[in-house]
Amino acid sequence: MKEDLGNNRKAYQKSKLSEDSISENPMELFRKWYYEVEANPRIDETNAMTLATKGLDGFPKARTVLLKKYTYDHFLWDVIIDKYVKLYKTIIAA
Length: 94
Description:
The protein has helices at 26-38, 81-89, and strands at 48-54, 60-70, 75-78. By secondary structure, the chain is of the alpha+beta class. It has a single domain (23-89), classed as Electron Transport, Fmn-binding Protein, Chain A (Pnp Oxidase, Chain A, Roll), CATH 2.30.110.10.
């Protein structure tokens, strides 16, 4: 069985991201993006996201998490406890 899925690609050309159009605080940019997604009625869980971190072994680790809260300077995710312990020990997140 062989199927070409190359034509399934969507065009994601809503706007451009340039240094002139963003705040110095990345949380303000996140808030803007979050409100845009939250306003979309086709998206059920606007707080679901993939969190990628650098593991203790030096390799990237990614997991799907639910954002519980965000403030001017931090995020709080709802994660499974053993994953949280690993995240707590991790220094770098992207």
